[in-house]
Amino acid sequence: MRRRSPTSQSFDDSMEKGQGKNHQPRVCLLASLSGLFWFLLLYFHFVILGGNHVHDSPNLDPLSLNKQSNPNPMNRATIRNAKVEMDNNDLVLKSKPLKKNVQPTPVVVRPVSSDNSSRRDPESYSFMRALRTVENKSDPCGGRYIYVHDLPPRFNEDMLKECRTLSPWTNFCKFTANAGLGPQMENAEGVFSNTGWYATNQFAVDVIFGNRMKQYECLTNDSSLAAAIFVPFYAGFDIARYLWGYNVTTRDAASLDLVDWLQKRPEWNIMGGKDHFLVAGRITWDFRRLSDSDSDWGNKLLFLPAGRNMSMLVVESSPWNANDFGIPYPTYFHPAKDAEVFTWQDRMRKLERKWLFCFAGGPRPGNPKSIRGQIIDQCKQSKACKLLKCGQSGESKCHSPSSIMKMFQSSLFCLQPQGDSYTRRSAFDAMLAGCIPVFFHPASAYTQYTWHLPKNYSAYSVFISENDVRKKNISIEEMLNQIPPEKVKEMREAVISMIPRLIYADPRSKLETLKDAFDVAVDAVINRVTRLRKDIIEDRKYDNYIEELSWKYSLLDEGQTELAAHEWDPFFEKPKDGSADSDNSSAEAAKNSWKNEQGQQ
User: Fold this and answer.
1) Which of 192, 283, 348, 425 is the most buried (most CB within 10 A)?
2) Which pLDDT score, from 0 to 100, does residue 369 have?
3) For the packed helices 248-263 and 235-242, what is the interaxial angle rounded to 10 degrees?
4) Do residues 501 and 378 lie in contact, with contact meaning Cβ atoms separated by under 8 Å?
5) A Gene Ontology MF term for this entry (predicted)?
6) How far from chain centre, in Å, is Cα 562?
């Protein structure tokens, strides 16, 4: 017999003792208790529980509920709906296949707040689906998908139709031929290979990269799968039209138009553009105008808030800014097959190099910091140096690709001082010829092309401080002669082995096993965006990041976060007395670069 509680027993006893008396008070009491019970029950249901009504909660992106990646990006993704259950005060989402031809109803869920953590549920991020594609081992494109914005033609193709306006001195139309490679070159002197060589303009990366992207094997029409988003805006061609004789309104027009177009796209809102990237085949200073004065240089694309969020790939980046990244200048060699690369590498290994060092370039008498004059003097005085002195004359051999490449192929070391700005196309032509580059400023290569060049710069190059040349007048020839022959051989082999990642393959084809400069850059962008996304999920913030020292961060090893004093600090210090602002000097260098563009130095 089940034992009753003391409370229930005393209540029954009182009822028994009251039998035979008037039942009216008891009926009233029971009715009152019953009414109170139902009132409390209804109050609890509609008021207490009603505060968590599902329709009052914010929407979660439906993509965050689908954890399965789509191996075929061109097909519509499998759609699933969600069934919400309560389990220990947590929301548990269970997926259930929809019936055929039934449209899914967006599931609305109020996130459960936690006093222990303010971190957002990872499943609420729209890019989670893209991150998960890497988990699909049967998908060769997992984690590598690129979505390309379908821009209006005014941002790219229309510029090619108006190619005569792209340079005030040159008919640029010939350089846009052959998918941006320029006219094919003859091999009368036997300097080149029989195929794959073109008279490529050094500023043609916009169209070359854009056409290579069209052949990328992991393009997708589904932006939710994309590891990164490409913006096919010909930024370099755009600014080239208006650098001379146009006001800032004209120079900024296309950039502002582009930003306005992008910010209206749903893809932009996912990360505020931080997963977007674009390419400009010019130096960064053409896009970093410091004021709105018509006399100031370039446009302000990279200073726009939206421009600062995107990653911009340029042939020369800023050491003091974090939103641009250096990629190689195009060379004359654009192979269509792996075999063409291997054949060229073998040929460079077997060449007899009779010159210890060489230099192709002209002096910069208007720049007191330039060491070109001293380099030219040292080369003239040495019997071990070959010189191609460049000038404004159209007859200069510096304008002849065959003359330049022939000299590089016959030299052990190729001197690469600063040009009008930090970098030179010549450095990549030299390495293509198997010539060991000699740099005089770290921003000419080491802090520029960190995606494409090894961090161990001494393995493939020689560094001689320009300060030592300028102030101490050290002998370049003596320094190079001190390097043991076996070490020289190792360095040359390192240079030759790097050739595939420094060249842009023919955009109309695809190398079979080798990765070219395009592939290396795309992989690096994807890795960068992936890290940004993981930082967002983990709520990692870098409050102590110093953008002005961005050149230093690019040299850190994986996992390193703290900066320390560096031997190159003096090269990147901005003057504290305000006598010469580095950005203004760089803008002046960009202007001088344009003045000297008529002579391909």
Assistant:
1) 283
2) 86
3) 160
4) no
5) glycosyltransferase activity
6) 22
Given a contact cutoff of 8 angstroms between Cβ atoms, the answer to whether 485 and 317 are in contact is no
User: Which H helix or E strand runs over 49?
Assistant: none
Q: For the CA atoms of 495, 501, 503, 507, what is the dihedral angle to 10 degrees?
A: 160
**248 membership: H or E segment, kind and range:** helix 248-263
Q: Are 530 and 227 in contact (CB under 8 A)?
A: yes
Alpha-carbon span 214 to 207, nearest angstrom: 11
- Which is nearest to 79 in space by CA: 68, 87, 89? 68
C-alpha–C-alpha distance, residues 360 and 380, integer Å: 12
What percent of the residues of the chain are helix, what percent strand, and what percent coil, each to the nearest 5?
45, 10, 45
**Alpha-carbon dihedral 581, 584, 586, 588, rounded to 10 degrees:** -130
Q: Annotate 537-592 with DSSP letters as a single string.
A: HTT---TT--GGGHHHHTTSPTT-------TTHHHHPPPSSSSS-HHHHHHHHHHH
Return d(Cα 315, Cα 330) in angstroms, integer: 9
Type of residue at 189: E
State the Cα–Cα distance between residues 174 and 445, nearest whole angstrom.
29
Token look-up 């202007």 returns 591
Give the pair of three-digit tokens for residue 412: 């052990």
Give 123-142 as a 3 state SS string. HHCCCHHHHHHHHCCCCCCC
- Overall residue count recorded for the chain in this entry: 601
Q: How far apart are CA 306 and CA 292, in angstroms?
A: 18
Tokens representing residue 556 in the block: 């850190």
| Cα gap 447→451, rounded to integer Å | 10
What is the number of other CB atoms lying within 10 angstroms of the CB of residue 361? Answer: 21
Containing H/E element for 237? helix 235-242
Mark out the alpha helices in 18-60 (DSSP H runs).
24-43
- What pLDDT is attached to residue 27? 55
Beta-strand pair 411-416/462-463: unpaired
Tokens standing for residue 441: 């400023």
* pLDDT confidence tier of residue 522, bands split at 50, 70 and 90: very high
Q: How far apart are CA 471 and CA 465, in angstroms?
A: 10
The dihedral built from the CA positions of residue 420, 421, 426 and 430, taken in this order, carries a sign that is positive
DSSP class of residue 100?
T
Q: Please state the pTM of the whole predicted model.
A: 0.78
Per-residue pLDDT of 492-509, as tens digits, reads 999 999 999 999 999 999
Structure tokens that stand for 279 in this block: 């390419």
What's the pLDDT tens digit per position in 163-173? 988 888 788 89
**Alpha-carbon separation of residue 30 from 6, 87, 269 (angstroms):** 20, 37, 62
Q: Which of 427, 425, 484, 419 is nearest to 457 (CA)?
A: 427
What is the Cβ-side half-sphere exposure of residue 233, based on CA atoms within 13 angstroms? Answer: 23
